[in-house]
Amino acid sequence: MRKILLLLLVLALALPAGAALADGHGGFDCGTDEEVTIKFFGDPVGSHPVGEDNIINAFKEVCPNITVERNEGAANVTDLIAFYLTAFEAESSDLDVIRVDVIWPGQLAEHLIDLNGIAPQSHIDAQLPALIENDTVDGRLVALPMRIGFGMLYYRTDLLEKYGYDAPPATWDELETMAAAIQEGERADGNDEFWGYVWQGNAYEGLTCDALEWHVSATGENFLQPDGTISALNDAAVSIYEQAAGWVGTISPPGVVGYQEEDSRAVWHAGNAAFMRNWPYAYVLSGQSEDIPGFDVAPLPAGDSGHGASTLGGWHIGVSKYSENPEAAAAFAIFFTSVESQKSYALDTTSPPAALELYADPDVQAAMPFASPNLVEITSARPSTFSKDRYNAVSTLYFNAVHSILTGEEDAEVALELLELDLADLLGE
Ligand code: GLC
Description:
Elements: H1 2-14, H2 17-23, E1 36-42, H3 52-62, E2 66-72, H4 77-89, E3 97-101, H5 105-108, H6 121-125, H7 129-134, E4 136-137, E5 140-141, E6 144-150, E7 152-155, H8 157-162, H9 172-188, E8 195-198, H10 205-219, H11 235-247, H12 261-269, E9 273-278, H13 281-287, E10 296-298, E11 312-319, H14 326-336, H15 339-349, H16 362-367, H17 375-378, H18 384-387, H19 391-406, H20 412-427
Parallel strand pairs: 1-2, 1-3, 8-9
Antiparallel strand pairs: 3-11, 4-5, 6-11, 7-9, 7-10
Helix pairs in contact: 2-3, 10-11, 10-19, 19-20
Residues 77, 101-102, 149, 205-206, 209, 261, 279, 313-315 line the site of alpha-D-glucopyranose.
């Protein structure tokens, strides 16, 4: 008996990583029996070293006739949308399956197939309804939800303790004070490279996310409200953007106005920052740093509205209308966003899943204690549902305006006034 148990144990350990994942997919419909190769445009490998490969390997076991070629999509999502739009406008068949940012269903709808009637209803029903709504454009389901992103504050528990703080900052003012004190102390202790706070200040979509958090925390509203009302310029907004501009070169490196997620994470990962604003993916990676003795995450600080705000991010999976193998591509998209795949991906990347039932899963709960099924409701959405295919233009106006304030090129009041005029022009008011 013992020998048999031992044998079973050895067999279990010898199973390839994807096998357990593949096992959950009995009777899966691969869409085609033909030998085909499909091209998938997925995560950048630097920020997401594992996650997708495990799902692709499991898919190969379930649908051996379909080979998935994984291509790295640009890390800068402003570049990524430009790449997609160029390819789609040329009706290129080079892209079969793509990852779709939560803000893009309206922007990309005309180029993506309708997955209603292709994805099993039980598959659709397993996802958080708000995400399915997000992905439904004029009745067409143009993407399947995979994961949720939201802005959070990473902080060094060891340094808070060292400097006598018993909790992370509740307001931006507190963050400023704590970041300055810790930075001063760490530099005095000999670390010249130490900074108080790192975030995303480059002129790209990531700045739209950070800036929206400042805006909502200060004013209680979005700069472009769900009904199309523009409210970029007001006193509370002017003051928070001025405050953020004041961080550049004081508690944040001067280069922060060129930082994307991975640039801030590099400083943080090297143990050279007290606080960082980032998405959930950085959680698992922070745990792997030998230069971070202790860290935790907290909600982003509150501004004048009395509340903090966190931008809703996340990624979904869509199938190109110009694919030469739409059945195989759709099968992969469905497999990729199944509950089993989402769980494996969530554990690998600490990204909260889109499937509701996984929030009750003990493994998921243990891997990411910060995740809750209410994330979509408690975060601030960028104005993509209202702006549809003009979202990219809206966001570009916004991040360029904010960037000009951060670099000191433009006065906050002037920049926000111009932004209001440009938004009104674009949206045809
Ligand atoms: C993250 C978010 C995505 C956002 C991007 C900005 O990938 O999930 O929604 O647009 O960051 O850089």
